[in-house]
Amino acid sequence: MWVLHRSGYPLRILLSLRGEWMGRRGLPRSMVPGPPRRRYRKEALPALEAPVLPVTATEIRQYLRAHGIPFQDGHSCLRAPSPFVGALQLKDQTGAMASFSLFINKTTGRFLCMTSLAEGSWEDFQASVEGRVDGDREEVLLSEAPEAEDSEEVRRIWDRAIPLWELPEPEEAQLARVMFGLTKVTDDTLRHFSVRYLRPARSLVFPWFSPGSMRLRGLKLLGAEGQGDGVHYVETTIPRPGAYHNLFGLPLISRRDVEVVLTSRELDSLALNQSTGLPTLALPRGTACLPPALLPYLEQFRRIVLWLGDDLRSWEAAKLFARKLNPKRCSLVRPGDQQPRPLEALNQGLNLSRILRSALPAWHKSIVSFRQLREEVLGELSNVEQVAGVRWSRFPDLSRLLKGHRKGELTVFTGPTGSGKTTFISEYALDLCTQGVNTLWGSFEISNVRLARIMLTQFALGRLEDQLDKYDEWADRFEDLPLYFMTFHGQQNIRTVIDTMQHAVYVYDICHVVIDNLQFMMGHEQLSTDRIAAQDYIVGAFRKFATDSSCHVTLVIHPRKEDDDKELQTASIFGSAKASQEADNVLILQDRKLVTGPGKRYLQVAKNRFDGDVGVFPLEFNKSSLTFSIPPKSKARLKKIKDDNGLVAKKPSSGKKGAVPQNSETSLGKAPNPTQPGPSKPSK
Predict the structure, then answer these.
(1) Per residue in 163-179, pLDDT tens?
(2) By CB neighbour count within 10 A (0-12 exposed, 13-18 middle, 19+ buried), where does 433 fall?
(3) Hey, which bits of 268-401 come out as E strands?
(4) For the residues 96-111, what does the mean pLDDT come to?
(5) Backbone φ, ψ for residue 321 (5° rounding)
(6) Which helix (H) or strand (E) element contains residue 517?
(7) For 332-351, how does the pLDDT look when each residue is reduced to its tens digit (9 = 90+)?
(8) Residue 197: which of 214, 224, 217, 221 has the closest Cα?
(9) How far is it, in rounded angstroms, from Cα 558 to Cα 413?
(10) Burial of 323 (0-12, 13-18, 19+ CB in 10 A)
């Protein structure tokens, strides 16, 4: 068993190593270059004055033909001669012309020149072809230098790290091998991949070399700690994870290689290469994301095998990445007892070549029989907890009812005006984001600055206004979350929003999209169409997006105007019944007291398509941290039951902790039969 924690924090990681507290970026304080100071960075998603129009592969081909630029059609990119290199640079080591060194992504239009390492957007490429690039902009396109502080830190760490086999104490080297599972990985393999060991931090060091020039651009440090009967791995990257685009093992790839194995960890690449001799590459961010900037480096391969891990999350990530790489050339290694991750397979003495030969193709035209589904069904039956999705850590009662947050589902969330819908849904999404769920926020009602302030306060669990000296510390940690925001505000066209969501799924591997709220997209629909039909169309569009993109969509919808003394029901959602019918989950934030409970607000799970459990649990708002915390354990958790007359009836508390699910009769408004068994207890 192993646990992985990815980090790029410039914060103290409180790990005691030989009497020293770990300092910035998880390195010993003695290696930190000077006192911490504020660093201003470029925004990952800058707010544009005008939205960038999406470009299609057909439009790219038409533009290239119109300007007489020859091109070759690849798996995920178009290849063309680069305007960023001169004739002398086109000569490779053999004297042949290294033409077609420019790669243009078919989906986004972004380009990368392999010779000069120039990169930019489709608009930048058009400006270069048409001679509209000024000198300053050209320097930006051709720039690949990291921040000066990062460059100095990378060189300082790399110079202090030493090969594992050169450690002066054999016991220390053996302990390091055991902790990282390298007992069967040879010194020749470590030397082949230039892996070193940093003694003060007790971490392996994996280098990031520029292709061709072999210039050191960054590092990844992997620390290991014993945790019960398993190992806890801590990753630290320089530069930060968003700028760390290292395909570990790329300098060892030959131009003649046509097959490669992708892994999610550098240790797995070492084991695979040693055991099979095949070219292997490790993705920089594991199963979290496959940045499109890496796709040009994978164009030369006719076959790509993805062996990302031994759990269901790795399997889902492999299928998602295969769609981005062109599934026709991809094969996937299914997790199983006899097919663990590569390093474990090597340590168990399994035949890694045989496992690779059993990889399943990622593409097929159609499902013709159950035979092609039986392994998928077995995988779900064997991994029930993983199939249920990511569980909420801040809302255990919600996890007991919904079981988890799953890809490809649509959740409809509603509540009275002023009840705190945005505040609750921001913490709901933040909880998942801190667990590695890549999240895209579409806030059409409040500005992104205000939303980010709310989420940062919830993340820090306190008011930062009273402790501004800690703002940089919390902001640095918050910045490393896989969280992105749409720049829309106010009424928007649904087609524009869907295009933006599809772009985010492709570029950032978004798994969760939050839309707050649906009513802001109805003003741009045709005026001749009634509002009910317009809303049905929008809900159907989000339902189709969630299914096709394997992405969870949380959609906030305002309710109809109801009497203040009545609670909201599924039928209270504005519009027709299509929203509740299309939704996999329906959550209602009720702004009134329970029958005998102390809380003012509670959350009702009114629909749960996954396993049918519905119910309610109280919420307690903490004004200082803007969070809905769990009420004290001494307070009774009650469920609401309706009798045949639709009145709310009291039911004595059972004394059980947590939310109490309702059975199907209760959810339909009928009182349960006392002679029948009660609802099942929630899993602890």
Answers:
(1) 998 998 889 999 999 98
(2) buried
(3) 280-282, 303-306, 330-332, 360-361
(4) 80
(5) -65, -35
(6) none
(7) 998 887 889 999 999 999 99
(8) 221
(9) 8
(10) middle
